[in-house]
Amino acid sequence: MTVTNQEFDAVIIGGGPAGLSCAIWCKDLGLDAVLIEKNADFGGNLHNIYNPIDNYPGLATANGREMSERFLDHAKRSGTLLRTSCCAVRVDPVSKTVELGDKTNLSSRAIVFATGVRRRKLGVEGEEDFEGRGILRSGSTSVDLVAGKTVAIVGGGDAALENAVMLSKTAAKLYVIHRGDRLSARSQFIDIATTAPNVTILLGHKVTSINGSGSIESIDVENVRDKTSRSLSIDHLLIRIGVEPNAELFRGIIKTDNNGYAEVNSRCETSVAGIYAIGDVADPIAPTISSAVGHGAIVAKVIRSSSRSLQNGSFVLR
């Protein structure tokens, strides 16, 4: 990190589509902004998209990484100040100061949270132990890996059932485990998965433990109603139970909903003047790459005009 105790018009935290868009627009509008990303690469959850992206207007890519590279190339060409491996550890909402892990302090007129979301974990015994040793990161990249094997997928939404459809083409046996009474995925995924001869749907069940020695050998599942348990022998596990916001930095500072997502108005303003939230971390209803990019543009323009929608000290959602 080469900047030390500098002042900016905006400090943007998070280098996914929303943060990159905001940085590009800030530069275009003549704002002095810095974009910081805790990971070694920009792109955020784009790196977790392994399938083609063909619904972003004017830009189709083979996967999320390619789209991330296109976005980053644009940001670099714009001359935006970009910093990776740069972790924000504390935010002072009064002075609008962001403290970094190396004790550097970045002060600004505006702080923009673009911290995104992460995959929700089961939180059960063995989950951390078997990361990369049986727990799959992606279904689309594991079709050959699971050939002739037994796979369990946890979840009942689109992500879970779409992966079930893909992996059932090569897996010898596949379980879909969902704690609810019904699947919430789109009908086309459900229809294919429920009629596949090698797929077993376990509704009203949850995983309580992941077991094995060198790699996964079995999981324990419990019936959520009668609490009876049984063990399933498996080779691989894919967890798709939704996402949760990366809200640690702003928890207790700005107003959030019951699930921890930042509450914002139509201008992406939070409950604290001069603090904004954009992208998936502020969009639990319909998060998309397009909406995240749009949020970035909105915030840059709002910061540029120095507008506020705090009236009489109260947060106004419009």
CATH architecture assignment of the largest domain: 3-Layer(bba) Sandwich
CATH class of the largest domain: Alpha Beta
The number of domains is: 2
Shape verdict: elongated
In total, how many beta strands? Answer: 18
Helix/strand/pairing category: alpha/beta
**DSSP helix count?**
5
Q: Element order, helices and strands?
A: EHEHEEEEEEHEHEEEEEEEHEE
* Oligomeric state, counting identical vs distinct chains: single chain
The major sheet is characterized as:
7 strands, mixed
Q: Fraction of residues in helices? A: 10-25%
Q: What distance separates the N and C termini?
A: 38 Å
* Unreliable residue stretches: 307-318
Quote the average pLDDT: 93
Rg from alpha-carbon coordinates: 22 Å
CATH superfamily of the largest domain: FAD/NAD(P)-binding domain
